[in-house]
Amino acid sequence: MSRLQVVSGKGGTGKTTVAAALALALATEGKRTLLVEVEGRQGIAQLFETEALPYEERKIAVAPGGGEVYALAIDAERALLDYLQMFYKLGSAGRALKKLGAIDFATTIAPGVRDVLLTGKACEAVRRREKHGGFCYDHVVMDAPPTGRITRFLNVNDEVAGLAKIGPIHHQAQAVMRVLKSPETAVHLVTLLEEMPVQETADGIAELREAGLPVGGVVVNMVRPHVLDEDAVRAARGDHRDGIAKALASAGVGGSARLVGPLLEQAAEHAQRVELEREQREALAKLQVPTYELPFLGEGADIAGLYRLARELRKLGVGA
Amino acid sequence: MTLEGVPGLEVDPLLDDPATRIVVCCGAGGVGKTTTAAALGVRAAERGRKVVVLTIDPARRLAQSMGIDQLDNVPRRVDGIEGDGELHAMMLDMKRTFDEIVEAHADPERARAILGNPFYQSLSAGFAGTQEYMAMEKLGQLRSREEWDLIVVDTPPSRSALDFLDAPKRLGSFLDGTFIKLLMAPAKVGGRAGMKFLNVGMSMMTGTLGKLLGGQLLRDVQTFVAAMDTMFGGFRTRADATYRLLQAPGTAFLVVAAPERDALREAAYFVERLAAERMPLAGLVLNRVHGSGAAALSAERALAAAENLEEGRIVDQGPGKTGVRGPEATSPEPGAPRTTAALPDAAATTTDVTSVVNTDVTAPPAVAELTAGLLRLHAERMQVLAREKRTRDRFAALHPEVAVAEVPALPGDVHDLAGLRAIGDRLAAGRH
């Protein structure tokens, strides 16, 4: 069972929602999880309807059975200052560095340093132990950058270890890489049953595999039920216009003659969607990665919806 | 489909106006930004303009639809455009763009030193922001070539839609910053009288950085910075020029979104940010909006009618079976009655079919079932419409001044020019 669960996905597929639901799902039965955000978007705070998260681990939800979800919005600048403090006891010198623009340089300009700090902080939380020796968090779930950048983001430490050949950053980068490439980590990709996200997921998995990063599962989000089954869709293609008009009239729908056309048109669109989704499911099956489907939440992902998705993820056994 | 009180975005007049020289498409990821940019390019070209589309990271199929599936950083003419106009398209290669800047602004020897520097190689391949900066750089280049009368730009898939506005400034301020000056000319600063304090600060700093990064990386950085010295002024000047270009009257920003909460929230941020930066917003393109030709029939009535049809069939199939209605009325589970009612008539189905014809439900069961399905499908569609309307209304209440073009949802993805053309038609017709 992987202790670091990285959740990525194409923009618009709901990766933050899935990451949060996964943190909840893994927290049930008295477990403690940490949900981390690395992109400074405050997506977790919006999702849990709380004020912006500070750079501090704080409890944001309680899971069924007494589990706890903590959240942390990792800030690269603060992570760097912490890090300098930890290793060099810099104190006021850290502030001087900041004034000179060195911190800004390190966190926004210097290649990879930002990503090293973000992944480093997450890995630190994964490895952190309590006084009695047990792990602080049973699981750490990361709301990671999107599919297009995930391999680069996770693999940045390899590059940095090559660039900074000695020194603490080199060692730190290597330590982080050891966690990320081990079975302790699982990278999940969130997608929709649409062509572009599925294609991007396939590309993402290929890139992750090539980089030697452990692929977890594919989470297919926002799956809508098929109101008409395939037989009905086929039946709708036949000419039943008169019959349908009569049936509508008998069911008390006025102006039924004018409705038949648009209703059949909607059925044709539905049929096309069913067909496209079937193709995308096939494409996903070829990836040979466990695939999990989550239902579409009509009213958007509010807190109740989040708990519902968490129950689904638990049922499906994602991350377990 | 209509939004009361919201101005419509007139896409064709915008594209036709010779004064429009740059259209920037921005918005959250996954809302169809690149597709919108490509569709606008096709439409403008077919309306007679000479257009270049700069895409950042197109999906393979979309790139193929314009014949630019190879990455080469050079605008290529797109075949199959109808009319007198021309369409050129290109995909940004950020490393190549960065290399070109170096080659154009440094003498060959210095350029070689920079291109071979490990720090430069990492920087150009993508520190957070290179892509945004290079997109703006490329835009400036395309504009200064005066070869096209309209440039349509797609923006990078950033962690935040606002990154591409900030990144050039960030790079500019870094290049102008104290830190880089210290890194660049330690001897000069340290040698001056009265600068002892700074010198101490500096050596402490480079000492720390050296420890942190490893001395070799720091030396790489210093060599890089020294080699780039002469180019810094140029970077800064061009970043400022591109920024001013974005504020110029010939530029039009289109914020792209889908009628979903998060995408519209991001769109609202963007609208506010553009206003704060005095950048000209043309309007909002709302992709994937659902409609219905049967919108007069509400979700509630459709569901009620569907139930009518389903119940009607059940009742008619069991004439004389007095128990049928009983469990239905008392069952707490809405899904349960159909099963309980359907079970007893399984054996009697064939004989019951005839009885159905003679009752007030004149349609045969298969058609009744099909019609009920159509009604349920319609109810679902109407619920989607209602949800989308709520999110749009929320946006419109916050920003009533923003003109909106709605693009109806397509069931599939776009694969060719015809598909892009169809989107363009929808875009142009999308003003309500």
From TrEMBL, chain A:
<dbReference type="GO" id="GO:0005524">
    <property type="term" value="F:ATP binding"/>
</dbReference>
<dbReference type="GO" id="GO:0016887">
    <property type="term" value="F:ATP hydrolysis activity"/>
</dbReference>
<dbReference type="InterPro" id="IPR025723">
    <property type="entry name" value="ArsA/GET3_ATPase-like"/>
</dbReference>
<feature type="domain" description="ArsA/GET3 Anion-transporting ATPase-like">
    <location>
        <begin position="5"/>
        <end position="179"/>
    </location>
</feature>
<dbReference type="InterPro" id="IPR027417">
    <property type="entry name" value="P-loop_NTPase"/>
</dbReference>
<protein>
    <submittedName>
        <fullName>ATPase</fullName>
    </submittedName>
</protein>
<dbReference type="Pfam" id="PF02374">
    <property type="entry name" value="ArsA_ATPase"/>
</dbReference>
<dbReference type="InterPro" id="IPR016300">
    <property type="entry name" value="ATPase_ArsA/GET3"/>
</dbReference>
From TrEMBL, chain B:
<dbReference type="InterPro" id="IPR025723">
    <property type="entry name" value="ArsA/GET3_ATPase-like"/>
</dbReference>
<dbReference type="GO" id="GO:0016887">
    <property type="term" value="F:ATP hydrolysis activity"/>
</dbReference>
<dbReference type="GO" id="GO:0005524">
    <property type="term" value="F:ATP binding"/>
</dbReference>
<dbReference type="InterPro" id="IPR027417">
    <property type="entry name" value="P-loop_NTPase"/>
</dbReference>
<protein>
    <submittedName>
        <fullName>Anion-transporting ATPase</fullName>
    </submittedName>
</protein>
<feature type="domain" description="ArsA/GET3 Anion-transporting ATPase-like">
    <location>
        <begin position="20"/>
        <end position="289"/>
    </location>
</feature>
<dbReference type="InterPro" id="IPR016300">
    <property type="entry name" value="ATPase_ArsA/GET3"/>
</dbReference>
<feature type="region of interest" description="Disordered">
    <location>
        <begin position="314"/>
        <end position="339"/>
    </location>
</feature>
<dbReference type="Pfam" id="PF02374">
    <property type="entry name" value="ArsA_ATPase"/>
</dbReference>
